[in-house]
Amino acid sequence: MLNDIGHKIKCIRKENNLNQVQFAKSIGISQGNLSEIEMGNSNPSAETLISIRTQYNVNLNWLLTGVDTDDGVTYVEEIEKNLIDVFRNLDDYHKNEIVEIIRLKLRLRSLLY
User: Fold this and answer.
1) d(Cα 50, Cα 48) in Å, to the nearest integer?
2) Domains, the chain, with CATH or none
3) Which of 57, 79, 101, 105 has its CA 20 to 30 A from that of 9?
4) Which residues form a coiled coil (predicted)?
């Protein structure tokens, strides 16, 4: 399991085009500590995991378990995840507008069937 977390952390670092020194500094640990984590020789602390989540918007459930979940919810289809991701980027006005559109669609559907 340690090896999996270390590998995922290394992938996150590489996806962001950072060397170990840069990535370690960004999450508040030493390069040596990062190296040990990436090799699977040590466990990242809770503080390190939170820092990675904060700095790189990483889903901790995925990082720890390998399951792509959000808030404990497993999405049935990729479109559900995409909908939530897009929805979260809207301001409150547009979020409410989308909710009303969905309610309208459901009302219209119930009239047709």
Assistant:
1) 5
2) 2-67 (1.10.260.40), 75-112 (no CATH)
3) 79
4) none
